[in-house]
Write a structure and sequence with these properties.
This is Sulfurtransferase. The chain is an alpha/beta fold. It has a single domain, classed as Rhodanese-like domain (Oxidized Rhodanese, domain 1), CATH 3.40.250. It is 36% helix and 18% strand. It contains 6 helices and 7 strands, in the order αβαβαβββαβαβα. The longest helix has 25 residues. It is globular, with a radius of gyration of 18 Å. The N terminus is likely disordered.
Length: 184
C-alpha cells in the first residue's frame, strides 16, 4: 500500500509543474494585453464576467465585447459557496464566433479573456475556447480586479494587481454597446 501511495504522490507532484507551466503559457499579463490590443488588429479582447458583476466592480472600454463565460442562476442558491449557482453560457462559443466575425477575424485570431481575478472564469474560458478550436485563446492572469491582499489593513480587498490596480483605463459604468444583453 505504501508503494501505491508513493506512486500516486509522485504522479501528482509531477503533474503540478505541468499544470502551472500550461497556465503560464496561455496566461498573459494586463500590460502585455494592453500592448497587444493597441498594436494589433487581430486580437479579440473579451470580458467574460456576468454583466451584473461589471455594474458593481467596473469595466474597461479596452475590451471589444462582454460575453459571460459563466452566468448567474438567480433561481438557485449554492449553500456551500454562499452564492447563486453559476452555469456555463450555452451560447459562449457561438457568441465568440459572432464577435470574431464582426471584427473580420476567424478562429485563428488571438482571443484574450478577462474575468475578475483570472482564476474562476479567465483560465477556464481560455481552456474551453482552446478545446473548441480556438487555439490562440489566452486569459489575463490577474483579471480585472486582481488578487486579495492577505494581511494588514487592506486584508480581503483586491488591491494587489489586475487591470484596475495596474493603472490601466477603466471606469465604473459599462459601455452599453459592449455589455452582454439579452434584450436585443
Amino acid at each position: 500500500m505504501d508503494k501505491l501511495l508513493q506512486k500516486m504522490f509522485l504522479i501528482a507532484a509531477l503533474a503540478l509543474p505541468v499544470c502551472s507551466v500550461y497556465a503560464e503559457k496561455i496566461g498573459i499579463s494586463t500590460l502585455e494585453t494592453q500592448s497587444l490590443i493597441q498594436s494589433r488588429d487581430d486580437v479579440l479582447f473579451v470580458d467574460v464576467r456576468d454583466p451584473v458583476e461589471i455594474m458593481f466592480i467596473g469595466f474597461t472600454d479596452a475590451v471589444d465585447v462582454n460575453i459571460p463565460y459563466l452566468m448567474v442562476d438567480r433561481s438557485n442558491w449554492d449553500e456551500s459557496k454562499q452564492r447563486f449557482f453559476l452555469y456555463r453560457n450555452p451560447n459562449f462559443v457561438k457568441d465568440i464566433q459572432a464577435a470574431l466575425a464582426k471584427k473580420g477575424l476567424d478562429e485563428n485570431a488571438t482571443i484574450i479573456t478577462m474575468c475578475r481575478s483570472g482564476s474562476e472564469r479567465g483560465l477556464p474560458s481560455a481552456e474551453f475556447l482552446q478545446q473548441n478550436g480556438f487555439k490562440n485563446a489566452r486569459y489575463v492572469v490577474h483579471g480585472f480586479q486582481g488578487d486579495r491582499i492577505k494581511e494588514g489593513k487592506e486584508a480581503g480587498f483586491r488591491t494587489k494587481n489586475g487591470w484596475q490596480n495596474d493603472g490601466l483605463p477603466w471606469g465604473s459604468k459599462p459601455n452599453t454597446d459592449k455589455i452582454y444583453r439579452v434584450d436585443n
